[in-house]
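User: These chains co-purify. Model them together.
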Amino acid sequence: MRLAVIGAGAVGRSVVELADEYGHEVVAVADSSSAVVADAETGSGVDAEVVVTRKAEAGVVGDDDPEDALAADYDALVEATPTTLGDAEPGFSHVRTALERDRHAVLANKGPVAERYGDLQALVADNAGGVRFEATVGGAIPAVSTVEDIEPGHVTAVRGVLNGTANFILTRMAAEGLDYEHVLAEAQDLGVAEADPSFDVDGTDAALKCVILANVLSFGAADDPADAREFTLADADVEGIRDIPGSTLRLAAEDGRTVRLIGEATGETVRVAPRLVHENGTLAVSGTQNIVQIETSHAGRLNISGRGAGGPETASAVLGDVGRLG
Amino acid sequence: MRLAVIGAGAVGRSVVELADEYGHEVVAVADSSSAVVADAETGSGVDAEVVVTRKAEAGVVGDDDPEDALAADYDALVEATPTTLGDAEPGFSHVRTALERDRHAVLANKGPVAERYGDLQALVADNAGGVRFEATVGGAIPAVSTVEDIEPGHVTAVRGVLNGTANFILTRMAAEGLDYEHVLAEAQDLGVAEADPSFDVDGTDAALKCVILANVLSFGAADDPADAREFTLADADVEGIRDIPGSTLRLAAEDGRTVRLIGEATGETVRVAPRLVHENGTLAVSGTQNIVQIETSHAGRLNISGRGAGGPETASAVLGDVGRLG
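Assistant: Joint model of the two components:
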């Protein structure tokens, strides 16, 4: 497939670098201020190495306008711009442009899937292309496609550890007996936490992922999309990890337990909160690992753990989606 | 899809019972001596409850001949007869009949996929239908489809605990400090082990699953199937758990370890043997749980654990495959 990659952060760049290995061709790349588009007439394509180097050295991906990438002749658009809430722009419009042109769209950007799932499904219904978004939930973990394969009507709940930064902090607090502020500073030094860590430590990121899963469950189980309940971040009950004292983790450890930030989605509720889990239990993944537990009607509980973030890991999920659409 | 279910053991019966819930219709069921086939003219279908009750009470599924089920008007044949080695008959011929009629085939029977993978792929290449076999590896765990989604060329190895009976025995030996023979007798009482446990405790069952995974990796990564290496049970290096003394588990426990029967497949090797693993590590699943670890080129390691056996669990995998073929 010919890909237009919108967004040149870690995920977008990894998609550009790995596409060829998955048998796809990148015909356009855009960041917020520039683009590079393959020239169909001269046959000159987009050189992954040139794009990535130029982005690193000059802060742009090419000499074209970002709009040119949206207008390029691609089969699938990869939306990998930063997640925005509310109207989920400009990501939503990028996806709409692709679908209205009867092309496919693959999202790594959580905004449109968490905040405008109904609008997205309406666009899919009205046009020929498909939409996939495995990369929005749990990085390399195939959460969405596994739920789809089991079929949403046979999944009663999906829960798990869906934010590596919060999990890293909780793991270190428990292992070293340190307080939140101390471990946060360490995580920031290591690049595991952002300068403003709110999105991760307040549970917003995990909540967006659970909202997406709730939408998959709700729309997937409904006979008619009009009957499905649509979820947005506003429907999520969210509590973060800022206020967990080190003493709580010490107390938990005395009882063979620890604390994890657990998100849970059903077709009716979304909740993210710190919860006590068994120290050596399945949910107690360490460091930046993520885990997803899928509760099924007929096949018991399925646990999938792996790397929940990272450029190549998330790009693998994007390229898996491209393969499924091909 | 209209299904013909060949084999009326635990898996076949569960497929018959659950098909309707997954939106499919059972038009024929056969066991080794009888069959029931829907009558297209009168519109009378196959009643799941009647079939299952008759099988339990009278040992037959209906008044028709097994051959009638193979000749029925189905879209997909479900091969759920017991696994046989070598020529993998009669399962292989059932699948061939379906494919030569340009129908799909879904296998829960490991024989044809482990022993005659090349023949199976040749039939798929020459006919219109597809073949899937998720249920042959790890019950409810989506091992095969996850490898396919990642793409076999990007998977360097697949390993895991793939036999619940052997794992139950090792778990109990470690937990209770008992010897193999004692725990085996207990497992037989509980119905977790067969009267003749060889297939499970000698590693044959785990090896067949690894052979199947090796074939998926080898054929999936090859540009031309003619270049792919075909694996059979004869290519597997297999060691079971009969000879593990209780003292080994006690010694391992002193060092925070335990023993698990680990199978591993790459595109070049298949090996099954008892191995030391960390007591609380990912591979140390308990009881009859199974786990599959997938090593990827770009997305790190993915762990999937869940129920590795059981009628409804395995039937869910079968019906997931039917969905993927639809």
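Chain A touches chain B at residues 14, 18, 21-22, 139-142, 145-146, 149-151, 154, 280, 282, 296, 298-307, 310, 312-313, 315-317, 320, 323-324 (CB under 8 Å).
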